[in-house]
Amino acid sequence: MPLISYPDASPDMAALLQSWKLPGGVTLALEQGSVDSEQVLIERCKAADAILLGWAKVTRGVMEACPNLKIVSFTGIGAADYVDFDAAKARGIRVANTPGYGDRTVAEHAIALLFAVSRQVPRFDAATRGGKWVQEPPGLELKGKRIGLVGFGPIAREMARMALGLGLEVVAWTRNAGKYRRSFSTVKFVDLAKLFDMSDIVSLHLSLNSATAGLIDAALLNRLKPGAIVINTARGGLMDYDCLEKLLAEGRLYGAGLDVFPDEPVAGGALKSRLTTMPNAVLTPHIGFSSAAAMERMLRIAVDNILGFFAGKPQNIVV
Questions:
Q1: N or C: which end of the chain has fewer CB within 10 A?
Q2: HSE-up of 303 (CA within 13 Å, CB side)?
Q3: Mind giving me the DSSP string for 122-179?
Q4: What is the percent of the chain with per-residue pLDDT over 90, rounded to a whole number?
Q5: Is the pLDDT confidence value at 224 over 70?
Q6: Nearest residue to 1 (alpha-carbon basis) of 17, 20, 23, 21
Q7: Whole-prediction pTM value?
Q8: Over the range 152-189, which residues count as b (16 or more CB within 10 Å of their CB) and which as e?
Q9: pLDDT of residue 78
Q10: Mean pLDDT of 243-250
Q11: Smallest Cα–Cα separation from 7: which of 55, 66, 70?
């Protein structure tokens, strides 16, 4: 049975994993804390048959120094950002990820941002904490409004179910509309430009790749109705944030709820000086995926990827 190295576990993930009973014969080498150099990672993983990976970078050099390594199971979706895929292919090392772990959690965060924007929760919270009893301006009631979902993957489908339950009308754009028309008969599928024309709320649910980078450009954003709301829990690179900021500053949009940004973390520069001072922008630090339930699902999937691989039943393999 394999030696599994988890070189960069957070305290919460370490505690969770240590509370589980692994199959007999499986050995777990667990280290906590960030890995700040290739040499540190090599030292922690050099004897491993499998790496359970958080945020460290598994480079070609790391793979060459780990002769027993057969699989890397990444605790997340975007394994390509942390594992050298070309080197893995060349050495016959499999790479797996953890799809689906956060679908419900991200959708719930998008709904949370929508409520925070529509009822101006941060503004009223700050006023109340500051000793002011402010009850104006009134917020928006969501029932009866139309939400447009850009993309219709698992997160967007969760979003659609919740939005319908809230009394929203749901429209969506996807390149595979025919696949979903029967199972989501209450969702109207439209082209992208029409979605921006007709929606009171637009929520982004696309992965970021060469086909989607910058897809939500100024031309589309300028098609939005006056008083519309934009929600983005997907990726910052999907959208023209300069145009979004301009529309917010001019008051053409009611507001925006943003969990992702073109450059993360938002530590300074032009983005900080604009969006962080706007009362109609609600900002969170890319935490849509983060809930206790989602983290447990993610870790279970990542561990099962390794156990399944050594049992001859590989799953969630991306390389």
A1: N
A2: 21
A3: HHHHHHHHTT-----S-----TT-EEEEE--SHHHHHHHHHHHHTT-EEEEE-TTGGG
A4: 92
A5: yes
A6: 23
A7: 0.90
A8: bbebbbbbbebbeeeebbbbbbbeebeebeeebeebbb
A9: 86
A10: 97
A11: 55
Give residue for tokens 């793979």. 63
DSSP assignment of the chain, as one string?
A: -PEEEEEEE-HHHHHHHHTS-PPTT-EEEEEES---SHHHHHHHHTT-SEEEESS--B-HHHHHT-TT--EEEESSS-GGGTB-HHHHHHHT-EEE--TTTTHHHHHHHHHHHHHHHHTTHHHHHHHHHTT-----S-----TT-EEEEE--SHHHHHHHHHHHHTT-EEEEE-TTGGGTTTTTTTSEE--HHHHHHH-SEEEE----STTTTT-B-HHHHTTSPTTEEEEE-S-GGGB-HHHHHHHHHTT-EEEEEES--SSSS--SHHHHHHHTT-TTEEE--S-TT--HHHHHHHHHHHHHHHHHHHTT---SB--
Parallel, antiparallel or unpaired: strands 3-9 and 27-32: parallel
Give the residue numbers marked as catalytic: 235, 264, 286
> What residue type is assigned to position 150 of the chain?
V
Q: Given a cut of 90, is residue 272 above it in pLDDT?
A: no
Alpha carbons 209 and 252: distance in angstroms, whole number: 29
